[in-house]
Write a sequence for this structure.
């Protein structure tokens, strides 16, 4: 697989040694991620009791291209909301999908509900 846009759940699967993490490891050097999704990852690491230095270490451990979340991304994410609400997708999920669409790359996630999407955005569910 070439490049992909990572959802927070995909990067967390790698960080936490969860099922599907090896799929993420295989493309991590070529992966991109929205700043929104990176914030989700960092928040989950804090929730697990890590301190700021530990969170920084985990986030810097891999070379993921972090893409700023700008006005266009905000509007594109919001436009996906009515199309994804029935599956319970979050703002972060929509941010990942909007970035994948903009970059013309597949979105990689651990969330199986994404396999039911029909948005013209390729989705790779890692488990």
């Amino acid at each position: 697989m070439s490049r992909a846009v990572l959802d927070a759940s995909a990067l967390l699967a790698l960080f936490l040694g969860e099922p599907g993490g090896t799929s993420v490891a295989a493309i991590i050097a070529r992966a991109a991620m929205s700043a929104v999704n990176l914030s989700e990852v960092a928040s989950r690491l804090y929730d697990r009791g890590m301190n700021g230095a530990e969170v920084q270490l985990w986030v810097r451990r891999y070379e993921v291209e972090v893409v700023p979340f700008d006005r266009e991304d905000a509007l594109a994410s919001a436009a996906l909301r009515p199309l994804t609400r029935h599956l319970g997708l979050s703002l972060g999920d929509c941010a990942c999908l909007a970035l994948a669409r903009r970059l013309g790359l597949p979105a990689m996630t651990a969330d199986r509900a994404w396999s039911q999407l029909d948005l013209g955005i390729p989705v790779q569910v890692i488990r």
Q: What stands out?
A: The two ends are 16 Å apart (CA to CA). Residues 4-125 form a domain with the Rossmann fold fold (CATH 3.40.50.1010).
